[in-house]
Amino acid sequence: MSKYSIFYSLIKNCFFIFILLFSIKSHALQDINHNCSGGVYINYTVGYTVEADNITPSTPYGTVVGRLIAKNEKFICYDRINYTWYLQIRPNAPQAGSIASICRTRIDGIGIQYLDYQGNPIPCNGRGAIFSVPARQQEGVLREGTVLARLIRIGGQVSHGPHVYMIGAKLDAYYYGYTASTEWGDFQIVGNYFINVTQYSPQIFFPSSPTSTPVVNLHIDNNFHGKKAFSPPKSQNLDMCLYDGDNASSNGITLTFSDDASGTVGRAPEDFSIFRNGGSRSSINDRLDYLVSIANPVTGSQEQVKNGVATYWSYGANAKKRTRQVVLPGVPGVSLCIPAPITISTPSMDISGKSSGNYSGVLRVIYTPSTYTN
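Request: output the structure for the sequence above.
Response:
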């Protein structure tokens, strides 16, 4: 997972650090009931989605570039309730290299490593339990978000463009105390999914500082006179443009804003904070709160964000209508990115109890270009 860090210079009493990460948004899916019997009677399927980064030919070997995420499934065991019922993965795939648990896929340069319910790798020529219904219980749920496998960059070239994702693993039903597993069903991807190989890495671009660190100053001044103890509302804008590595070919984006002040007491969900240098993070006198909003990448309308909460926008063809031509560091020629300017603001506040000094903090922006389609 690519990481980019942007460090702000200290100006007056406030500065921010943007740390850019990449991930992919998962999608909630419909519940489906399955009978535990399976076998020769019914061939069941278990659905999954894929979370994956955009991949470049320079992505290092061994990098985890994605995950298979189970959908929510309920299992009902009408028979053999005196035994624990196990649902297993049987990779049924050739080994990709020297590691017995990294198997080949149908995409050159991308391997897969299946995981059991304890997170341990499953050998490509073996099998491992991913879920169980305990003895004398008739129901169990494989919960949404369970990681079934990891996608891993392996040796070999990856060709540019979107690749349809396919796997060949099988699901088995196994009854504790018996010597053999019986084939139960298959995996089935939910929706269409493409693993995208781009020539360049995705990045967040700040047009005002194309080759240097952007600076944000909230201009909060505690040098008041007489009875003036309130700082008026103030805001600062920061132009931001989102480049997906392939000239806005993605179908959507996910953005998450967060700071380094998790667990701060007495703070609203939409608040972010900076702290007095050398002060106490547990003291409200050494803390200043602020708000973050962003221009919706699809419509351009202003939206306030919550701290640590991911927001997903699906733009499809609308992306081309809002693209901006920019020259990006390390990317030759003119590229297309999606404008998403940020506004950082402070409400009117009583600063009479705030400690004087320089305040600083961290604001993290997590950006995900998505190739998922329904």
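The domain at 32-197 is CATH 2.60.40 (Immunoglobulin-like).
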